[in-house]
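Open question from group meeting: does this chain pack into something compact, or does most of it stay loose? Before anyone orders reagents, we agreed to write out a predicted structure and look at it together. Recording both the input and the output here so the notebook holds the full record.
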Amino acid sequence: MSKFRSSITVTAEAALEALSAAVSHAKAIKVPQCVFIVDTSGETIASIRMDGAKYLSMHTARAKARTAASINGATGAMSVEFGVAAGIASQGGVTHLPGGLPIRFDGNLAGAIGVGSGSGEQDFEVARAALSAIGADEI
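Structure tokens returned:
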């Protein structure tokens, strides 16, 4: 029985590259966004609130990233009832709002991204642009 497991984590350099790509895409679609990149444990590596992005979206973008890292999947797919209960139980640390995606390389979780301040589809679009920029698995 192994006493250790190997894991990967998004580097600060990759997080900044993803953040830059997210900002560029958000500018291209003219939707200022809040973006969080977290490691596999949900701790923030990099974040930004673009000029004009909604203040409260900082909180939801972080929750989206943390949720995506925790469930190793996209946010927005859980039932509303479960999402509300999880949000209350985690004091806002978990959300069912769309816009969070896991960051995977060759199927291995390395972190997650959360985007907020646009529609759910715009948030996902910006997140996917960030993943593409760093060569992460397509989701």
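Observations to bring back to the group:
The CA atoms of residues 16 and 46 lie 7 Å apart.
The beta strands are 34-38, 44-49, 100-105, 108-116.
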